[in-house]
Amino acid sequence: MTRSTTVLAVKRDGKVVMGGDGQVTLGSTVVKQTARKVRRIADGQVLVGFAGGAADGMALLERLEGKLREHRGNLLRAAVELAKEWRTDRYLRRLEAVLLAADREHMLLISGSGDVIEPDEPVLAVGSGGDYARAAALALYRNTGLSAREIVEEALKIAAQMCVYTNDRFVIEEL
Q1: Which of 2, 5, 6, 166 is catalytic?
Q2: By three-state DSSP, how is residue 100 classified?
Q3: Strand order across the 46-52 sheet
Q4: Active site residue 5
Q5: Helix, strand, or coil (residue 43)
């Protein structure tokens, strides 16, 4: 379900940075190299990235933005409400994607099984290259003074070297 992408978020020194690669894979074929899997929503106050089906990810992104409006920009509340709806709604249950969402206060993984997970350390990733990117980012976060943006860039480069479903054409957004 989460093949064909890598999305990584890091928070450090008051900055929140989220980046994703641009590769879209259909089976064993690369069909696009410049996809945009990371976006700004809620008047630029929230960063969202997705792994999984593009149409499913976009549908969930739009739902999350609606929940943010409904809950006056409260990301945690909006994420919980989306996860509840996603798990119980017949249509939404069929969507195959995972979301990362971050604002200046929270960094969350949101899934259709009802998960709303905030990591212990401010590093979170999803997708086929997510584990590689997260491991690299955690090592850089713990052992260097690199900025959040530099950590995201370097960790995504490492993931792109290791994961065949991840390329090095990154889209990076920062709050």
Answers
A1: 5
A2: strand
A3: 38-41, 46-52, 97-102, 107-110, 116-117
A4: yes
A5: coil
List the helix and strand counts (H, then E) for the chain: 5, 11
Band of pLDDT at residue 2, cut at 50, 70 and 90? very low
DSSP letter at 92 equals H
Per-residue pLDDT tens over the stretch 91-104: 777 788 899 999 99
What are the domain boundaries of the chain? 6-174
**pLDDT of amino acid 25:** 84
pLDDT at 141 over 90: yes
- Strand pairing partners for 26? 29
Q: Report the sign of the C-alpha dihedral through residues 108, 5, 141, 172, in that order.
A: negative
Give the C-alpha separation, 104 to 32, whole Å. 31
CA quadruple 96, 166, 168, 31: dihedral sign: negative
Tell me what percent of the chain is helix, strand and coil, each rounded to the nearest 5.
35, 30, 35
pLDDT tens across 28-47, in order? 888 889 999 999 999 999 99
As a CATH number, domain 6-174 is 3.60.20.10
